[in-house]
């Protein structure tokens, strides 16, 4: 039995690199597609936002001399590339899907609208939302919050390479302890680097809970949907 009826799944662009140092690892891409297929077969309505950090990150580009707006636009294009790759992988698994873009770029993808997305998900399509918010100075975390709120998702599932939210970075601090659940205000007060502040605030103000878990362990997405406590639940 699925714990959630409709989800917004946020995937990290960096995770798509897999064992490579750059770009898209076909093995990691295929593993993601198989996990998404599993929950799609359970009847879960799925919207997805994927970052572009494996190809280009606008903010880091700005520190190297790129104009910030153009850098962010390059980052948006990187998310489109990743979205098309995921769309192809899902298609290979027999999962119907649509790529919707925040800026017009037909025929690469359809221009996003809330009603088009909901209609497609209710018809059994996985919807992949690309190009962020379509505006510079916003991260894909904020884009995920926005799309999750717009499609009236029950939860945002943030798939990362760690198994939840910790008191500190567990990859750097061996004494860091994991939260089973935490409030938005605690995240802000403690200064935890879960998502950018705009994204956290949007979720808080619009009552969109977040569940942070390790997407890189195959089968974890289904475990979350089935209600297994393997990550951290963020709530008001």
Description:
The chain is α/β, with parallel strands linked by helices. It has one domain: 3-Layer(aba) Sandwich (Carbamate kinase). Helix content is 37%, strand content 19%. The chain contains eight helices and eleven strands. The protein has helices at residues 26-40, 58-62, 68-92, 114-122, 140-150, 184-190, 197-205, 220-225; strands at residues 6-11, 45-50, 97-101, 110-111, 126-130, 155-160, 165-166, 178-179, 181-183, 210-214, 232-235. The strands form two sheets. A nine-stranded mixed β-sheet has the order 4-3-5-2-1-6-10-11-9, with helices on both faces. The protein has a two-stranded antiparallel ribbon with strand order 7-8. Strand 1, helix 1 and strand 2 (45-50) form a beta-alpha-beta unit. The mean pLDDT is 94.
Q: Write the CATH homologous superfamily.
A: Acetylglutamate kinase-like
Strand content: 15-25%
Enter the CATH topology name: Carbamate kinase
Q: Roughly what percent helix?
A: 25-40%
Radius of gyration over all CA atoms, rounded: 17 Å
What is the level-2 CATH architecture name? 3-Layer(aba) Sandwich
Shape: globular
The residue ranges in which pLDDT falls below 50 over 5 or more consecutive positions are none
Most strands sheet: 9 strands, mixed
Distance between the termini: 25 Å
Category from helices, strands and their pairing: alpha/beta
Domain count, please report it: 1
Order of adjacent strands in the largest pleated sheet: 4-3-5-2-1-6-10-11-9
- Number of beta-strand segments: 11
Number of helices: 8
SSE sequence, one letter per element:
EHEHHEEHEHEEEEHHEHE
Text of the CATH class? Alpha Beta
């Amino acid at each position: 039995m699925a714990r959630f009826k409709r989800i917004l799944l946020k995937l990290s662009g960096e995770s798509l690199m897999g064992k490579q140092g750059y770009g898209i690892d076909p093995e990691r891409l295929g593993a993601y597609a198989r996990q998404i297929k599993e929950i799609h077969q359970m009847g879960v309505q799925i919207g997805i936002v994927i970052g572009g950090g494996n190809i280009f990150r606008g903010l880091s580009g700005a520190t190297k001399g790129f104009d910030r707006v153009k850098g962010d636009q390059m980052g948006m294009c990187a998310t489109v590339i990743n979205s098309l790759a995921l769309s192809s992988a899902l298609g290979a698994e027999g999962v119907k899907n649509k790529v919707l873009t925040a800026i017009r770029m037909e025929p690469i993808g359809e221009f996003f609208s809330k009603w088009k997305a909901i209609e497609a998900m209710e018809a059994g399509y996985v919807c992949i939302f690309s190009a962020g918010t379509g505006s510079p100075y916003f991260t894909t975390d904020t884009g995920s919050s926005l799309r999750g709120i717009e499609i009236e998702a029950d939860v945002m599932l943030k798939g990362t390479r760690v198994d939840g939210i910790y008191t500190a970075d567990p990859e750097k601090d061996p004494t860091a302890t994991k939260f089973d659940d935490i409030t938005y205000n605690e995240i802000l007060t403690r200064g935890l680097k879960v998502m950018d502040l705009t994204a956290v605030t949007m979720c808080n103000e619009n009552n969109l809970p977040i569940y942070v878990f390790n997407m890189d362990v195959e089968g974890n997405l289904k475990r979350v949907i089935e209600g297994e406590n393997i990550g951290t639940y963020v709530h008001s």
